[in-house]
Specification:
Order of helices and strands: HHEHEHEEHEHHEHHE
Oligomer: single chain
Strand order of the largest sheet: 3-2-1-4-5-7-6
Number of strands: 7
Number of helices: 9
Strand content: 25-35%
Length: about 250
């Protein structure tokens, strides 16, 4: 279980509880994100890449290149178990991101998607500088639904009915403009991500405010209410999102 004072009032959460849903329903990053990461050199032939907070390995699986050496690290043993089931050619390790015990100057690229605000910032800064090769890139990624999207707004409100300390953003967008190192570059773009009623419900199950932190009774009541809410919408729809990419070339 994890908890941070600045996230959900310090309420504990455990991503391990969401692993099955995470693997099934969180693979939603748009193709443009992967194209931009490739242009930044991630998973390029002959390079090494570390994905911290990798979860079930969504980024490494979608950017997999047999000619690159790819490693994913996550503190959740259950999430890594699901990641290993997807691609046996990617190296996955269970470890806190702040202390991976991986060799110095090992990676051309390090990525952190949907996770950096969960880490100890100063410890993470030292670990990134230790692990990157000179001139390597550290890249933060954040994908968030937009508040003005009707389905996202109603889903968010419903989670808060059952878990009123949950914050959907967790300061994610603000974190993308943090000058962790010199030379920050931040890009952002809009996208409409397609869902079905089932896959959107699954995506909401795999968030910090539901399975990761609700007790069993809370979750069952929320789940039933959310399915009922979604029954008023078409079987297929899109949800408006914003994608942020921040990168630093670390000397």
């Amino acid at each position: 279980m994890l908890s941070k004072k600045n996230i959900d009032g310090g309420k504990a959460f455990d991503w391990g509880f969401t692993s099955q849903q995470y693997a099934a329903y969180r693979d939603i990053y748009p193709s443009e994100l992967y194209e931009r990461l490739r242009r930044l050199g991630v998973a390029k032939d002959g390079t090494t890449w570390l994905d911290i907070g990798t979860g079930t390995g969504i980024l490494p699986q979608n950017l997999y290149n047999p000619n690159a050496k790819i490693t994913g690290v996550d503190i959740s043993e259950e999430q890594i178990r699901y990641a290993k089931q997807q691609n046996g050619n990617i190296s996955y390790i269970v470890s806190p991101a702040e202390n991976t015990c991986l060799p110095d100057n090992s990676f051309d690229s390090i990525t952190a998607a949907q996770c950096f605000w969960y880490f100890d910032r100063e410890a993470m800064k030292k670990e990134i500088k230790r692990l990157l090769k000179p001139g390597g890139k550290f890249i933060k990624i954040y994908l968030t639904w937009l508040k003005e999207d009707e389905i996202a707004a109603k889903s968010t409100a419903l989670v808060k009915e059952f878990n009123n300390v949950w914050s959907a953003e967790a300061s994610g967008s603000k974190d993308m403009y943090d000058d962790l190192f010199e030379g920050r570059v931040t890009e952002a773009f809009y996208c409409d991500i397609p869902f079905t009623r089932e896959s959107w419900h699954g995506r909401m199950c795999a968030c910090r405010g539901t399975l990761a932190s609700m007790n069993g009774e809370q979750f069952e009541k929320w789940s039933a209410a959310h399915k009922e809410m979604l029954s008023a919408y078409p079987e297929k729809f899109t949800v408006k999102h914003m994608v942020y990419i921040t990168y630093f070339t670390v000397k």
